[in-house]
Amino acid sequence: MKKFEFTLSRIRDYKNSMLSKEKNVLAGLRMEQKNIEDRLAQLKINAAKLNNDMHEKISVGLTAGELKIYDFRRNVIRDEVQALNNRSDFLLSSIELQQKRVEKLKQEVSGYDNLEDNQRQAYNEAAAKEQEQIIAEFISQKITREINNV
Questions:
Q1: What is the pLDDT of residue 7?
Q2: How far is residue 84 CA from its own chain's centroid?
Q3: 136 CB neighbour count, 10 Å cutoff
Q4: 120 in Cβ contact with 5 (< 8 Å)
């Protein structure tokens, strides 16, 4: 009997490479999301420091120009936070879609793996039957020779 060969192995290998690429894309999206979360945390700290500085300066006296500078800096932080929150929302939906793609590819690859297992099992059963048949023929021939020699 010829050696077992899974006929769909090239397709499964291709799907595996696609799965690997999609996992890398998902990891990149998650990393970007984490970077945004880290930047938002840093901006929150910066905003708190800015407010503390402004309140300290107000208590000792602050000019209108200095107040405008603090107000401008606070607005810059607020705008960046808003932009990051918008990007974060977009990334979360992208991550969800990418997770669905990865899950679908995992299921496809798993299906090919199961198919290979089933085909391998059928091959092994056929090979075992063939071996049994060869042994039965050998024994039959041996018994026939022994009977003819008597």
A1: 79
A2: 24
A3: 10
A4: no
The DSSP annotation for 21-61 comes to HHHHHHHHHHHHHHHHHHHHHHHHHHHHHHHHHHHHHHHH-
List, for residues 13-35, the tens digit of each pLDDT value.
999 999 999 999 999 999 999 99
Cα separation of 111 and 117, whole Å? 10
Angle between helices 9-60 and 64-149 (to 10 degrees): 160
Q: Which is nearest to 110 in space by CA: 15, 46, 6, 4?
A: 15
Q: Using CA atoms, how far apart are residues 135 and 129, in angstroms rounded to an integer?
A: 10
**Which residues, at least 6 apart from 127, have a Cβ–Cβ distance to it below 8 Å?**
1
The whole-angstrom separation of Cα 65 and Cα 71 is: 10
Closest-CA residue to 59 (of 69, 51, 47, 48): 51
Distance CA(4)–CA(122), nearest Å, equals 10
7: which DSSP letter? T
Distances (CA, A) of 46 to 34, 37, 109, 149: 18, 14, 47, 104
The pTM of this model reads: 0.74
